[in-house]
Amino acid sequence: MSLSNATVLSTKPISSSNRKLLILIVLVALADILLFNRYPGLNLFLFANIAAAGLLICSRRRQSALETSALLAFNFVASAPLVETASRMGITISLLGLSCVSLGASGLLPRQWIRLPLTLLRFLLEVPLRPFRQTSYRWLQRLQKPSSEGVRHHLRGWIMPLSFAAGFLALFAMANPLIDRTLRSIDLTFLLQLLSMWRIGFWLAAAVFLSLLLHPRLKRRRPHRQKIAEVALGVEDGLFGHAALLRSLAVFNALFAVQTLLDLTYLWGGASLPNGMSHAEYAHRGAYPLLVTALLAAIFVLVAMRHGGPGDKSALLRGLVHLWIAQNILLCLSSILRLDLYVEVYSLTELRVAAGIWMGLVAIGLFLILLRILLRRSNEWLIALCSATLVLTLYAAALVDIPAFIARFNVNHSREISGEGIALDIDYLLTLGPAAIPALDAYMAALPAEAKEQIALASAARGALTWGEWQEPRDWRSWTYRAARLGRYLQEHPTLAR
User: Where are the membrane-spanning stretches (predicted)?
Assistant: First the structure.
């Protein structure tokens, strides 16, 4: 080989497949350092942003500095809740951010933002099918080719140097007692720990996860089949024709009007209920079934008010749909009021907080459906706005310390503090974790000295939560702002001063 050819080969840039493989190895190593056998915390935030940077480095597309900065900033904001605490909602939002960066690095992001939810759905639906796709093994086939650019070529180049180096090292150990003693003093237990089955399994899982991000694919769209479309259209016209829609909406509006009038009378108006029934029972029995009712109503409206259908062309049907959606929104607000009345009597729980959030989301969704009909927008527009509302709600919930809020609410509304409601359920506060410690301190500080039994129970619960918090092994990788706040509080209040 001539000198000029050797110079060209040495200065040739690394191919895209080899660069992705190198980045994959580096990211798996960083995942091992940051995540393996560690409590989740700051390490998740750091790894999410490092992985985003790695995805952009591996991009085949030439991206401008503005596009790269925008994707990195978006991923930073999406993973920011992980700094507060490593919750399931924060992890979900961070994964969505990484998915968007992966699609952006591969040029698969849609130009219109309303198409982003469907694009992400196609990306997620393709993940289970990836092992069965022939395209997922293209990079392995390229590695098997006897090319001078393949990884096998570079690996073969290390066989001779490493073999001779091992032989020379063995000879030096035989000739030099210092080298022999140094080699014998090496502790191989570290290698055994490094090659444990759990660690290897973690490496494989991390490699699979990162490979999906490095090689994103979208689920293929099925070709439109005219016969199936005609059959489906015929079924829709039969079930959701003008006459069927008119009768359905008339019956539904009349039925919902009865429920609305009852809620306006007994729930909003506060009228006296029949003997043996309390407002709490009336509220509790209706909260969750009415939520399901509103969801079914939303599905019916979407199917009935399709573009070009009878409901879209008739002014009478549109008016009945508007009235029905308004009643459903009022139904959701009534469900939220029912839940609030029940919570005032029977305290707050995480499930009831989640139910309240979902009721609000359903009400917003119904309002967006009404906007979609009035503005004559597409279902894609509706899905995009509903998805954005859901993501923003999860993002806000990931930043709020919900267990601490529940604990404070139950303490402030307990019978011992407010004089109304039920006694504080200390056993439930234990299930909320260490976030309930400040609320327990406020509870014990507000109790009179004569309430020795309640003070003893609360003190025992605080001691158990405090002991559990201090026993958790933590380092800088598991740091979160929420845990740091609680740790600072416990240092300032090691015991309750009465």
Answer: 21-36, 42-58, 155-175, 195-215, 249-268, 288-305, 317-337, 357-375, 382-406
Q: Does one domain contain both 133 and 252?
A: no
Q: ∠ CA 293-299-301 to the nearest 5 degrees?
A: 100
Does the pLDDT value for residue 11 go beyond 50?
Answer: no
Residue 289 · residue 263 · CB < 8 Å: no
Q: Looking at residue 166, what is its pLDDT?
A: 77
Question: Looking at residue 235, what is its pLDDT?
Answer: 46
Give 164-194 pLDDT, tens digit per residue. 777 777 777 776 677 777 777 766 665 566 6
- My answer on whether 245 and 376 are in the same domain is yes
The answer to whether residue 326 scores a pLDDT higher than 50 is: yes
Same domain? 202 vs 152: yes
The position carrying tokens 């967006």 is 368
Same domain, residue pair 310 and 410: no
Instruction: Quote the domain boundaries for residue 457.
Output: 403-492
Same domain, 282 and 395: yes
Tokens coding 36? 């393996």
DSSP per residue, 432-474: T-GGGHHHHHHHHHHS-TT-HHHHHHHHHHHHHHHHHHHHS--
Residues in the chain: 498
395 lies in the same domain as 409: no
Candidates 429, 451, 448; CA nearest to 440 is 429
- Given this model, what pLDDT does residue 465 score? 92
Among candidate residues 368, 400, 432, the one where a domain is terminated: 400
- Per-residue pLDDT at 405 exceeds 60: yes
Neighbours of 220 (CB within 10 A): 11
Locate 456 and state its tokens.
């003893």
Same-domain pairing of 308 and 433: no
pTM to 2 decimals?
0.79
Instruction: Mark whether 326 and 386 lie in a shared domain.
Output: yes
Q: Tokens at residue 237, please?
A: 């016209």
Please, are residues 458 and 444 in contact by the beta-carbon 8 Å criterion? yes
As given in the structure block, the two tokens for residue 181 are 């003693």
Q: Which of 400, 425, 457 is the last residue of a domain?
A: 400
